């Protein structure tokens, strides 16, 4: 009898090209996603060594971090360095013959949204990208993780990655979510519980009834932030929801190959009795709509709570919390729901999919953004944008006073013109509230799209359940 | 890649936990298409004020630490993005070794690709080295990768763990891609097999 395996074990085993005595493995990579920021030095390395891309047909590139998201962007990028970086990707994609979605293509968008949307991401695959939020693709039951630029070059040249196996961690969300609670609240609540280093050295498999009940969009939101919990990757076993999403996508298998793929995909689940090195269980009913108050994604609290004091913590976190509160300009004891905001950002690879826009629009319908607050909606891809326009969501956002933008990373990281001013406070659906992430000295509160919409209406952090 | 064998140098203390990659090198410096030149912007937002003047309180701006080659830091160092600009900036500044109770995964791996040695030590050992580092230019620490030891200014020695393959590559300055290309036949075989078993990939 073979030993019981986890989902991670199964995908790993199916991709080992070579294993050295010390356990260092050469892992085959099925999909390599590329964007403009972490790839130029890798392509330059290939050129200098006279190497080719080993599997250009498995390599997909799209510019996203630097691209402007205003509707007039066809006129080009003003910032010279940004322009050079995007142009470098244009020419590298052409020179090396890889799949490419340039800024002018309706399918262009955030790399982690484009991959699944085009059917490049499939269950059981290994997927890498020079970007930590590659974890997103784990929603399909694909082993997906971020790599550095040297590793990007390594994958380009060899279609493999040198890896040691991580440990298995199980995060189970039992039962059902209460109204107003979404996938974003799940993933933030998990990080709040485990801390940002809680998953270090592990691959997380998310399971349980509340995870099963999520759509693919929701599952991508959950896996997206596995990295914020320190995990190498996050995984969700594929099921009918997954297969339904994948079927018919441009690069999904068809006909007999679809049947063959499906047969294998259905075996991709953790066996009864498989060993996990770490287990975390949270009751779905216990999760509330949450927001972050500090500058680490682990600084999470239900919206009904108050800003904590540094003394509430232990060890190194006392100083970290003091620094966070100073940076965020917050006083301990202030109810979170009384914190006024200046900006709202709805978008990013965490929450820039159609379902996210629907959730925000449902709250905003017929309402208007509070005076003095600026709001920005940035669809995750050109196709999401188009669909939202067809469904009338764009109109709801615009009527509510939001700017309706073109696809890109936008204010998730402010490498483009979309940025917070110093001390500007933002209700954001992105994934990082680090100092300066959304602009120099900008202040970020992470939350779900519905919560961000609620904050837009009242002009302060708000419990979305009061507006439902 | 540059070899790492032994290093004797000044250790700078950075007693913060969760030092993220945005702190190490903020995003406005990721627009380069080169690997070099990032050292001046290492820890940019802590190191300079809004007008670009040096903040005299930041450790690497203090005369004693300007030539630091070792950094002693808190838990979960390098968390956040996958940007290799973080180790590039650290190395370009002149730091070749970072010591902390734990590191974020991707950052840890990225260090090895750039000839930087990240060392994980128990909190008590890091605390001791942090104390040593606070003594400024008098805190000369020696890191010996071959023997896996750190010797402090008082001569006390601490040993550390490291993956044997990573150690081997660092000691010899081996380039991963050349090593992997030696296994090209195994990759070919794998692809042939996968084309049969998973033709849709
Ligand atoms: S949307 Fe944000 S987190 Fe996602 S890839 Fe872009 S910058 Fe990274």
UniProtKB/TrEMBL annotation, chain A:
Binds 1 [4Fe-4S] cluster per subunit. Residues 9-459 form the Aconitase/3-isopropylmalate dehydratase large subunit alpha/beta/alpha domain. It comes from Tropicimonas isoalkanivorans. Belongs to the aconitase/IPM isomerase family. LeuC type 1 subfamily. One of its GO terms (biological process) is L-leucine biosynthetic process. PANTHER family: 3-ISOPROPYLMALATE DEHYDRATASE, HOMOACONITASE, MITOCHONDRIAL-RELATED. PROSITE patterns: ACONITASE_1 (PS00450), ACONITASE_2 (PS01244). Heterodimer of LeuC and LeuD. This is 3-isopropylmalate dehydratase large subunit. Its EC number is 4.2.1.33. NCBIfam families: leuC, PRK05478.1, PRK12466.1. It catalyses: (2R,3S)-3-isopropylmalate = (2S)-2-isopropylmalate. HAMAP family: LeuC_type1. [4Fe-4S] cluster binds at residues 349, 409, 412. Its cofactor is [4Fe-4S] cluster. Pathway: Amino-acid biosynthesis; L-leucine biosynthesis; L-leucine from 3-methyl-2-oxobutanoate: step 2/4. Catalyzes the isomerization between 2-isopropylmalate and 3-isopropylmalate, via the formation of 2-isopropylmaleate. One of its GO terms (molecular function) is 4 iron, 4 sulfur cluster binding. It is an enzyme of class 4 (lyase). Keywords: 4Fe-4S, Amino-acid biosynthesis, Branched-chain amino acid biosynthesis, Iron, Iron-sulfur, Leucine biosynthesis, Lyase, Metal-binding. The keyword Repeat does not apply. The keyword Iron applies.
Automatic annotation (TrEMBL), chain B:
Keywords: Amino-acid biosynthesis, Branched-chain amino acid biosynthesis, Leucine biosynthesis, Lyase. This is 3-isopropylmalate dehydratase small subunit. Catalyzes the isomerization between 2-isopropylmalate and 3-isopropylmalate, via the formation of 2-isopropylmaleate. Gene3D superfamilies: Aconitase, domain 4 (3.20.19.10). It is an enzyme of class 4 (lyase). It catalyses: (2R,3S)-3-isopropylmalate = (2S)-2-isopropylmalate. Residues 1-124 form the Aconitase A/isopropylmalate dehydratase small subunit swivel domain. It comes from Tropicimonas isoalkanivorans. Pathway: Amino-acid biosynthesis; L-leucine biosynthesis; L-leucine from 3-methyl-2-oxobutanoate: step 2/4. PANTHER family: 3-ISOPROPYLMALATE DEHYDRATASE SMALL SUBUNIT, 3-ISOPROPYLMALATE DEHYDRATASE SMALL SUBUNIT 2-RELATED-RELATED. One of its GO terms (molecular function) is 3-isopropylmalate dehydratase activity. GO terms for biological process: L-leucine biosynthetic process. GO terms for cellular component: 3-isopropylmalate dehydratase complex.
């Amino acid at each position: 009898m073979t030993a019981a395996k986890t989902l991670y074990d199964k995908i790993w085993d199916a991709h080992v090209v070579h294993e050295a005595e010390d356990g260092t493995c050469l892992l085959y990579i099925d999909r390599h996603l590329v964007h403009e920021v972490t790839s130029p030095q890798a392509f330059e390395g290939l050129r200098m060594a006279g190497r080719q891309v080993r599997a250009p047909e498995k390599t997909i590139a799209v510019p996203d971090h630097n691209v402007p998201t205003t509707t007039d962007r066809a006129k080009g990028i003003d910032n010279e360095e940004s322009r050079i970086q995007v142009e470098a990707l244009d020419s590298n994609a052409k020179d090396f013959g890889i799949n490419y979605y340039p800024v002018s293509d309706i399918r262009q968008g955030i790399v982690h949204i484009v991959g699944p949307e085009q059917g490049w991401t499939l269950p059981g695959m290994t997927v890498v990208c020079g970007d930590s939020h590659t974890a997103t693709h784990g929603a399909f039951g694909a082993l997906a993780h971020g790599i550095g630029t040297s590793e990007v070059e390594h994958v380009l040249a060899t279609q493999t990655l040198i890896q040691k196996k991580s440990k298995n961690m199980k995060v189970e969300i039992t039962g059902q979510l209460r109204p107003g609670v979404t996938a974003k609240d799940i993933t933030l609540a998990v990080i709040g519980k485990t801390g940002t280093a809680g998953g270090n050295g592990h691959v997380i498999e998310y399971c349980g009834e509340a995870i099963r009940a999520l759509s693919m969009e929701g599952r991508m939101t959950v896996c997206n932030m596995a990295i914020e919990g320190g995990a190498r990757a996050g995984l969700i076993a594929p099921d009918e929801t997954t297969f339904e999403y994948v079927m018919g996508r441009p690069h999904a298998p068809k006909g007999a190959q679809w049947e063959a793929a499906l047969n294998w995909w259905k075996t991709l689940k953790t066996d009864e009795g498989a060993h996990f090195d770490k287990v975390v269980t949270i009751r779905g009913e216990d999760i509330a709509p949450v927001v972050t108050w500090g500058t680490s994604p682990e600084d999470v609290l239900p919206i009904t709570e108050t800003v904590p004091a540094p003394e509430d913590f232990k060890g190194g976190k006392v100083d970290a919390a003091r620094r966070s509160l100073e940076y965020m300009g917050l006083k301990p004891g202030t109810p979170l729901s009384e914190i006024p905001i200046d900006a709202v950002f709805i978008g990013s690879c965490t929450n820039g999919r159609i379902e996210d826009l629907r959730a925000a629009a449902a709250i905003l319908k017929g309402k208007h953004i509070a005076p003095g607050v600026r709001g920005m909606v940035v669809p995750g891809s050109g196709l999401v944008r188009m669909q939202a326009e067809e469904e009338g969501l764009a109109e709801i956002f615009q009527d509510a006073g939001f700017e309706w933008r073109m696809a890109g990373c936008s204010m998730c990281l402010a490498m483009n013109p979309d940025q917070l001013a110093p001390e500007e406070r933002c209700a954001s659906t992105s994934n990082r509230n680090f100092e300066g992430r959304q602009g120099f000295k900008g202040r970020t509160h992470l939350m779900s799209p519905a919560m961000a919409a609620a904050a837009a209406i009242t002009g302060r952090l708000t419990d979305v359940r009061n507006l439902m | 890649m540059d070899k790492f064998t032994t290093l004797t140098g000044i250790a700078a203390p950075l007693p913060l936990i969760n030092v993220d990659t945005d702190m190490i090198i903020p995003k406005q410096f990721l627009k380069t298409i080169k690997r070099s030149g990032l050292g001046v912007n290492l820890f940019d937002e802590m190191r300079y004020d809004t007008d670009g003047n040096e903040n005299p309180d930041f450790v690497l701006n203090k005369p004693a630490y300007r030539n630091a080659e070792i950094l002693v830091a808190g838990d979960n160092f390098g968390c956040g993005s996958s940007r290799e600009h973080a180790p590039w900036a650290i190395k370009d500044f002149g730091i070749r070794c970072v010591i902390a109770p734990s590191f974020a995964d991707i950052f840890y791996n990225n260090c090895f690709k750039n000839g930087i040695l990240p060392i994980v030590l128990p909190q008590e050992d890091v605390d001791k080295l942090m104390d040593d580092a606070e003594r400024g230019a008098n805190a000369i620490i020696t890191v010996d990768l071959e023997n896996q030891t750190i010797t402090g200014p008082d001569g006390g020695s601490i040993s550390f763990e490291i993956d044997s393959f990573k150690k081997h590559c660092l000691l010899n300055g081996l380039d991963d891609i050349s090593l992997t290309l030696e296994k090209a036949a195994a990759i070919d075989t794998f692809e042939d097999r996968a084309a049969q078993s998973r033709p849709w990939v």
